[in-house]
Amino acid sequence: MNHYPSTVLNLIRQIAKLPGIGEKTAERLAMHILRSPRSEAEALAKSIAQVKDRTRLCSRCFCLSDDEVCAICNHPGRNRRLLCVVEQPADMVAIEKAGAFNGVYHVLQGVLSPMDGVGPDQIRFRELVQRMVDGGIEEVVIATGTGVEGEATAAYIAEQLSGRPVRVTRIASGVPIGGDLKFVDQITLKRAMEKRHAV
Amino acid sequence: MNHYPSTVLNLIRQIAKLPGIGEKTAERLAMHILRSPRSEAEALAKSIAQVKDRTRLCSRCFCLSDDEVCAICNHPGRNRRLLCVVEQPADMVAIEKAGAFNGVYHVLQGVLSPMDGVGPDQIRFRELVQRMVDGGIEEVVIATGTGVEGEATAAYIAEQLSGRPVRVTRIASGVPIGGDLKFVDQITLKRAMEKRHAV
User: Is residue A70 part of a domain?
Assistant: First the structure.
């Protein structure tokens, strides 16, 4: 590594800090950047700087936004009585891509994790409660992850909202579509069996 | 993808242009950059910009350098009579890491590839010949790759230098060390057999 000049070494080290990027890949990407046209490298550097400068959280749902209020919250065609709670902006994007939801979102920006010192005050839970207080919401679909922390967060939210005049639901979990049963993990299969429904 | 705000979308697109980085990975890296401290994102952006501004090719060997002449060409302990010819700066770094070479280098910055319109004038071949003319070099070790183009380039260089008072050698090719013979490809095994030597 120290056979590269300092600027190149610095670039390799910065790239290697990214998650899932090892030293070899960082070296390969740095070499690509060195060989690529100046305009392309500048566009990449600028996009990284800009994303930190210009991207903020929507003041209503806390998803990523260029503006004070995001495009979904502002969209006249969305059903504002239906609210989907997710952990991260990427989860919201995944649901949008699936195209099966026409309500609005609430991005917690995290998940309850007492071991890591993350309680309700460290995520956007108060803001969720405030939206309930503000009213107008008929159903809250909790779409946090189906791991231990996502489930615990879902249970906590369901419990906290139980006294309010709002229907609280959870996205279904079970066998993924298109999957072969023998490749599905045991916990998922167990859940799918427990949640079986009449056809 | 178009569910992200434009700045985030722009970052994902810029990252996805890097080789070996698909859309999913680009999305994941962009989310990491968004979540990481501002100082870290700025350091990454700066290192990309700087590498284009400050890195140049060593005027003597054409490897990557911060200065007019690189650290290896300037090092008093290197054997200037021994010259190793490689395709790319990364090849030089690989040989340096192996620690088995104490001479100096000549980086061709490419490989002969008539199909892609790359002839001797498109790589640093003239500069190699000029170094022969300047004199003081006793041996040229050709360490271009062992693929078709690397071999053709090696053969071309060997032929062009044949009239000069310099010993021209080629790095050995054969079975990699630590490899199981049954996992070695046929061409390598054939070469290893042809180049067998007395023990």
Answer: no
